[in-house]
Design a protein that fits this description.
The complex is a heterodimer of chains A (306) and B (213). By secondary structure, chain A is mainly α. Chain A is built from 16 helices and no strands. Chain A has a domain of 93 residues. With 213 residues, chain B is α/β, with parallel strands linked by helices. Chain B has a single domain, classed as Cytidine Deaminase, domain 2 (3-Layer(aba) Sandwich). Helices cover 35% and strands 23% of the residues of chain B. Chain B has an eight-stranded mixed beta sheet. Chain B is globular, with a radius of gyration of 16 Å. Classes of the chains: A mainly alpha (306), B alpha/beta (213). At the A-B interface, α10, α12, α14, α15 and α16 of A face α2 and α6 of B. Chain B: Belongs to the EMC8/EMC9 family. Chain B: This is Chlorophyll antenna size regulatory protein.
């Protein structure tokens, strides 16, 4: 629902004649913060207008939240001079704040001055060794430097202290995948599933990783996690439905029909095939001619694009 | 055997749109077109595949299988290659995993190419300081992938008008049309999203003044 609101306010901002209205700009920035959307050039542009014309419309608290939001967006959009001016304003208002210093560090990162950025973060960590922001920046720094291994080290250290940070575990998984360490990535998804047992995408991702590693046991385990994702999404997840079929194509064990669990193993691929055909018929009938041969191949035990 | 590769403007625009839609991600996709015996490849279209991770097999396999079905059924085009754009601001390199995926994508083609978006050249392209932001690789028999520039080869644009491509790219970007491009991963999350992007090319051409509808 909120995403539609965001689309709506963005559209009205785009269509505005002259300077857009304050309340729309404020609403846009607020929704972006709430929904954790990353559209930095747009945020920088509208944030700039808001800060230039409508500062008085904001409460003290929101004013500086917006400054921080716009500074980060400007850095992400590589609008460095603009970012510098916003960060300077923040520094003037909050001298010696750790939060402000980390923005300065981010500026150096964006400018490619990694040694100086590192200096800033280590400075903060010297007096605040468990400062979340500084620890996270050390991870980003290594990523920017193109050192995924060092980033992994730093992120593991962070998660030792802040083990409940779901985003942290997701990023660690991504990093492990980047360096093709599938087993460690799998471990991260296991943590995420434990922390969020209702989130179907973690089951699917975990299964994707196991499938990619391969091997009989992994195909079987992946299949059961895809099955769980199908259950959680009431049969709506294409990834999970295709996943079940892809696994089944790799699993060549003969199955005893008396066993109820084995019967389920036989029924699951057929049920998935039917579910997929239903979804394509309803939502993408033009793709049916491409999907039907693929489903036939998978059913015949030939894994797709093997 | 002289190797040559030309690309349709629409195909390159789609790759740029895919990268522009996900500026903080690595993205990849398949190239379709025709490949002739004598060693010339014509890229007619680009089909975007992934943007969340390029390292997991399932989405890639299923996507590739659907694209293969598509080429068999239409009969007029074949899979002729692979494209990739890296998240980081670096030169156009084809890392080991990218090479493996490219091998997989082009296993049924004797002649195939890889386009890697060179982000540094893309910056120059946007500033009109360089024409072609793509690094071209060609299949080197069983030895893997070779930079075409090593043999003096380069990617040719079908209508030879890089300026026009730049203009279309800017118009597309300004009008946020890149947000209307859908890749295969998006299709997996919402079946209604068309990874063939049938309406995309015409919607962009419509925006440029002087372009016939």
């Amino acid at each position: 629902m909120s995403e539609l609101e965001l689309e709506e306010v963005e559209r009205s901002l785009r269509n505005a004649k002259g300077v857009p209205a304050a309340d729309k700009l404020i609403k846009y920035l607020r929704l972006v913060r709430e929904l954790h959307v990353r559209d930095s050039p747009t945020v920088a542009r509208y944030g700039n207008i808001l800060l230039r014309h409508y500062k008085s419309h904001l409460s003290e608290e929101e004013l500086w939240l917006v400054h921080e939001q716009v500074a980060v967006a400007a850095l992400d959009a590589h609008a460095l001079p603009f970012a510098a001016s916003v960060i300077k304003a923040i520094n003037r208002r909050f001298p010696d704040s750790v939060r402000a210093r980390r923005l300065q560090g981010m500026y150096f990162e964006a400018a490619g001055d990694f040694p100086r950025a590192e200096e800033m973060y280590r400075d903060v960590l010297a007096t605040h060794p468990n400062n979340e922001m500084a620890l996270k920046r050390m991870v980003s720094l290594e990523r920017s430097r193109g050192n995924p291994a060092a980033a992994i080290e730093a992120l593991r250290r962070y998660l030792d202290t802040f083990g409940n940070d779901k985003d942290g575990w997701e990023e660690l998984a991504e990093l492990y995948l980047e360096v093709l360490n599938y087993r460690q990535a799998a471990y991260c998804y296991e943590e995420l599933i434990m922390m969020n047992p209702g989130n179907s995408s973690f089951y699917t991702r975990y299964a994707d990783v196991l499938y990619t590693i391969g091997g009989a046991t992994n195909y079987k385990t992946a299949r059961s996690y895809y099955a769980k994702a199908i259950e959680l999404t009431a049969g709506g997840s294409l990834r999970a439905l295709f996943g079940v079929l892809a696994c089944a194509a790799h699993i060549t064990d003969k199955v005893a029909l008396q066993d109820a669990r084995s019967r389920a193993q036989i029924e699951l691929p057929e049920a998935s095939t039917q579910a997929l055909l239903r979804i394509y018929r309803t939502h993408a009938p033009d793709k049916l001619p491409f999907v039907e041969p693929l489903l036939a191949k998978l059913a015949a035990g030939q894994p797709g694009a093997q | 055997m002289t190797f040559s590769c030309s690309a349709d403007q629409t195909a390159l625009l789609k790759i740029l749109a895919h990268a522009a839609k996900y500026p903080s991600n690595s993205v990849n996709g398949v190239l379709v077109g025709t490949a002739k015996e004598g060693g010339s490849v014509e890229i007619l279209d680009a089909i975007p595949l992934c943007h969340t991770t390029l390292t997991l097999a399932p989405a890639l396999e299923i996507g590739l299988a659907q694209v293969e079905s598509y080429t068999h059924i239409t009969g007029s085009v074949a899979i002729v290659g692979y494209y990739q754009s890296d998240a980081r601001f670096g030169p156009g390199d084809l890392p080991p995993l990218g090479r493996k995926i490219a091998d997989k994508v082009s296993e049924h083609q004797a002649q195939a190419v890889v386009l890697v978006l060179d982000n540094k050249r893309l910056e120059q392209f946007c500033k009109a300081q360089a024409d072609n932001p793509f690094e071209l690789f060609s299949k080197d028999g069983s030895k893997g992938w070779k930079r075409a520039s090593a043999d003096g080869g380069e990617l040719a644009l079908k209508n030879a008008d890089w300026k026009k491509l730049r203009e279309e790219f800017f118009v597309m970007f300004k009008q946020l049309k890149h947000r209307t491009l859908h890749d295969f991963e998006e299709h997996l999350d919402d079946a209604g999203k068309d990874w063939l992007n049938k309406g995309f090319a015409s919607s962009v051409k419509f925006l440029l003044p002087g372009n016939a509808l």
